[in-house]
# Entry
Amino acid sequence: MKKVILFFKDSYNPEAISYVQNNIDEVFAGYVETTVYYVMDLDEKTVLEADAFLVAQSVEMQSIKDHVSDFSKVIRLTRSPNKDVLNKLSYIPSGSTVLVVNDSYNSSLETTQAFYEVGIGHVNMVPFDGSLVNTGLYDNIQIAITPSEPHLVPKHIETIIDIGYRKVSFETMFRLMKILKLDVPAVNKNLFNHVYSVIEPNAEFNSNYINGYLQNEMINRVIDTVKLGIVLVSKYYEVIFVNDIALNIFQKKEKEDINLARYIPADTLASKDVNNDNIEINGDWYHYDKYDLTLLNETAGYYITLQNLTDFSATDKQRREKGFIAKHSFKDIVHKSKAMDDVIERARQIALTDHTVLIRGESGTGKELIAQSIHNASYRSQFPFVAINCAALPETLLESELFGYEKGAFTGAQSKGKIGLFEEANHGTIFLDEIGDISPGLQSRLLRTIQERQIMRVGSDRIIDIDIRLITATNKDLEEAIQNGEFRADLFFRLNVLPIEVPPLRKRKDDLHDLFSFFLGRGVGAFTDEERRCLLEYDWPGNVREVENAAIYYKTLSQLPSNIISKQFDGSYSKNSVNLEKAILQIIDTNTSMSHGIGRTSLLQQLKQRGVVISDVKLRSILGAMETDGHIKIGKGRYGTRITDKGIDRIKEL
# Structure
């Protein structure tokens, strides 16, 4: 942890000093430790060691020169008013003379200058000098502004506007970050928020910091864009950078001459979800895309790409012919629940990165929809989106589909060989669904591909470099698969870089009405109160896919499927659910042997055959209670769940 020493003249205002310390802690949280020293109390022989020294305006530099081990680490501590005070100042009558009162004339002058720099010009501000208070100079002034120093205001002034303690200035914070060598994402995020919270006289310095960050972000993300017009804008859509192609598109010589609002419709410019929008600029049509640039989770600006529609259509046609496109974006995800709001917001942030994503969730929850949306919100959206279900193909065929093969690689191979899906997805995204079902041999090969971003076709000895983003999905418990030796731990950690958990429908039933509205349209109004109750009580093990099936059934036969409207067991384990308890124990008893028991999946299937439909979550709860009562023994892996002697006695009792 870095050590920072703060020098103040004396301790007459401990609240203000504490406020300064808290400011520094907010920006450098966890990275620095601050200690305060009062120059008036220092022994003349005291020499202090620290990584940086902040000196208040009231302290003369000469007075601390002999107390500092390294004077190159000294920074003058300047402060700035909080931006929240601008609203207070706007109510001061125009033309009024206002006294700006602080603990020193320099501080008062600094505060006055900051207000003038941000456009507070409707009043005449006079910086207060305590040595002139008895000269009559301030006798005719009736309004004073002070940052929590009301006791310094001349007694005759009746109207005092307290603007609170001033914050540490952005310039001071920035210099401190550089001296401490703490130019790291967490500190930059806090500093980014800080700069927007203060009134700074040096506005150009602030803009250089913000604009420099945005420009670096764009340079790091945008590559191979020779056919694209690039426009970088701030969060307020001020143009910061354009490339030469963009200047030609707008027919301007300088970026300052470009007013985006004149060329791009306001709703298009402000839209959070941009997908396949075409706009006209100076008589030509362009494919328009917009991407967020964030500092951690804060939106700092956007970059916009413009591609001539003729060029875009040619490449888009090739992708569509092969089916390598992502049809959906975040705005297509039908939902109302807070749970899905959180998932989508997390996925939006993830889309702005280029890291590997693992989407987890039960079958039918919409994992591919999330994957497509991430692709379309990323800078790779104009390149292929290639999806494959790993559970749908046998190992040998899946390997040749993913990596391709050379001619004659195996019996039945095409005479010219075949390009693999990793190569087809180059510069774009490859989505591997049901990743938990791939074989150990293929897991090993996939691990190397992820590590090296290289592939080798089946039957070849030539390495091929690839540039892809990998998104995977599974409905399996991969941690359990690792314990059972069915999935490689090292591959799991390579895949689980940015995990997204899509909640099952039973945990977000607020979405049911909107989903049925989507699938049924106005027909959703035909549900009876009893049917609505059945929909809400049903657990939807098939999730959104089952909702779609139920909607089709209802649209065709004017009634809900029988498994939804039939009386459902509540799934709770109590003395009142005797039939359910008996059914579960009987099935476990039938499937108990010396070497193994029954797994939950098989147990659910056999319950369903008896007309009992409950969720896996509820079954887990019931089995846990039964084990606590000593009626069953739950083992790991293939051991399964087995009946105990006490459980057999319980069956007889029931």
